[in-house]
Amino acid sequence: MMTDTTDDRVSRRRYDRECQARKEAEALLEQKSRALFKANDELSQNAARLEQAVQERTAELSLALERAEAASTARSRFIATMSHEIRTPLGGLLGMIDLLSMDEVDPGKQELLDYANTAGTGLSRIVNDVLDFSKMEAGVFLFEQENVDIRALIESIRILLATHEHGTNRRILARIDDSVPKLFLGDATRMRQIISNLVNNALRYSTDGPIIVRAGAKAHPDGVLLRVEVEDFGVGIAEENIDNLFKDFTQIANPLTAAAQGTGLGLAICKRIVLGMGGVISVDSRLNDGSTFWFEVPVQPVSNPDAQGSNGSKAAHGLPPEGIVGRRVLLAEDNLINQKLLLTYLDRMGLHVDLAENGRIALEKFAPGKYDLVLMDVAMPEMDGLEATRRIRDKWSDAQIPPMLALTAHVMDAVEEEAKLVGIDRILSKPIPYEDLKLAIEIEIAAASGKNAPTSAPVASVRPDAPEPTPETGTEARTFFDLMAPTAAESLLDIFGHDGLIDFAGKFITDSNSRIEQLLAAERSGDVKTVTDQAHSLKGAALALGFADLAEWARRIEHGETHLDKWTVAETAANFQARLDYLDKVLKN
Amino acid sequence: MKGVIFVELIKMAEGAFGEDTVDMVIEKADLDNDGAFTAVGNYPCSELVKIVMAFSDHSGLSPEVLQRKFGHWMLGFFVDNYPEFFADKDSAFALLESVDQEIHVEVKKLYPDADLPRFDTNRPGPGRLEMVYSSANRLDAFCHGLIEACMERFEEEGDVVRAPHPTEQNAIAFDITLKK
């Protein structure tokens, strides 16, 4: 049979071999298929596990993020609260010292009060340093963008520090190069903080020689690069100490004073501020050879200097000085010490104050036309100042609402946004010095009257303490008496009777006119004693008749404080005269 | 060792000696699986040596000659079936250098369990390549054949000197010098 097979037939052996090879290949294929299936299965299991792991990690991370955010919020709130808790009593203390000093005549006690004031101010500075530092740590330190006049800024620092404890008998020189733009955009407060800190240090670490404050500018991609230098000729700094200088909580031992002063945060804060402004700060110094601290920050020059009029306190000076005496203020304040302090301050400004112990009471008391200004504390029980403001804004139209000012001992940035949102016109930070408060009130009232009621004459804007503005055409007696403080008018009417009081008022005007003439003459001839004496008399008389604004102007002349209104003695006296003329006219009508 | 080597060896033998002769020689060779090789399987190298010895006995050709011939055959197989490995090479040296660096890397991807020899290369000077073949399986002549075929493939001529590696065990050094 085998021999019959054709050539292309394969042998049995070959066939068997191929079959066996095929079987083996098939078995291998099946085995590989299983392995592949298993591998696939493992892969999808791994994918699922991986996905779950990713989900778990994501959940863990978002939880951690949530916690971190909560911690950060808590920290911010803690700082704001601590700020409030520390500043409130401190402000109270400083205010009380301020009030006591105003009235203290005993030189011995006055000296003690001065010490207390110095210590308190120092403490306040340290507290502010620590708070600034905490704010920077918490990342809630914000920079303003406003017009900065560095010449005026350095000048004010120069004047302020020259009268300061370390600065007496020291020369502080300002050398501002023409390259420095007249105005540029920046944060004036922070810049002032840096420069005063540097000048303060220069005063502390040197005993003689001038302190020279230089400023210059050069071209920079973002406008100009401002460079400010503060040079002293004092103890200097050894090279090995320079690196530590700008670190937190470090101080260089001062051979001029036995004890360390301050927190050691001053330069660290300066450095953070400058870095925050995108600049650099450093020092060139040699031991016993004086130091030059300098910083450079990029700033944008303001091309239109008129823009200056549009912001802040500068605006106020452009407006005609508007009397605030006799204006009605609603004060919402819960803290007894602050109540006492603010009531005394406001009273001193000749304002009529209505006190509300919390936001709810303020809301109840408020009515359109009843007040010329509202002062709101922020943190109060029952209803806080912001909530009360919001509700007042909701209830009445803007035209019916006088300027609303918020007083806060919180870190300002923390409440600023919300305050603006509810319609606060201006935020004042506690502790607020008397003059700052007065200036703020003057600005707001001036702005409001400029906006709402164009006044015919500056003096006519002093409104009587009546719910409705009294027309000038009312009975003459009523108009005149209404110009007086109500308590004074009441008691004087009691004593003199109606006609007697008119007679008395006439005498007051005649006498005062003669005195103010003498005062002006004495002022021209440089007779300071007569000026003071006459002013003192004028003050007493004006107080007796309840003309608080006149009394205040006289007091300013007496105490040589007319510059606080940016007026000269003669200008203040002229105002006084103008008011007397006006009173005379009202009286004779 | 991959089954494809066995399948190709037998295919070469069939071409040279005819099917009946191959059937007979395989039967005599006393192989573990009676010569039923599949390209996807794995078989011990000793089986390959047995087949080579059997054909040597049958034909009177030395195992050395048979292995070298088989090297030539396998290079042809590689060129036909894996042209991508040759496409971007311009010389025999470039291909020989790519055996370890490229080709075996790809083989490992498909057959993670493959037990591959190592080929370390080095160019001591222009026109010279040293190639060290390290493997427990001593298919020295087979490698020799592959190298020769590779040079032919790129139309190059050269001398291949084969010697045991001076220091390493189980290693053979090929010193290849191209003719100018």
Automatic annotation (TrEMBL), chain A:
Organism field: Pseudooceanicola algae
Gene: arcB
Enzyme Commission number(s) of this protein: 2.7.13.3
PANTHER family: HISTIDINE KINASE, HYBRID SIGNAL TRANSDUCTION HISTIDINE KINASE J
Catalysis performed (reactions): ATP + protein L-histidine = ADP + protein N-phospho-L-histidine
Protein name: histidine kinase
GO cellular component, one term: plasma membrane
Signal sequence extent: none
Lineage: Bacteria, Pseudomonadati, Pseudomonadota, Alphaproteobacteria, Rhodobacterales
GO MF annotations, alphabetized: ATP binding; phosphorelay sensor kinase activity
Keywords from the named record: Phosphoprotein, Plasmid, Transferase, Two-component regulatory system
CDD domains on file: HATPase_EvgS-ArcB-TorS-like, HisKA, REC_hyHK_CKI1_RcsC-like
From TrEMBL, chain B:
InterPro entries xrefs: H-NOX_domain_sf (IPR038158), Heme_NO-bd (IPR011644), NO_sig/Golgi_transp_ligand-bd (IPR024096)
Domain Heme NO-binding: 2-158
Source organism superkingdom: Bacteria
GO MF annotations, alphabetized: heme binding
Keywords attached to this entry: Plasmid
Pfam families registered for this protein in UniProt: HNOB
Name this protein carries in UniProt: Heme NO-binding domain-containing protein
Organism: Pseudooceanicola algae
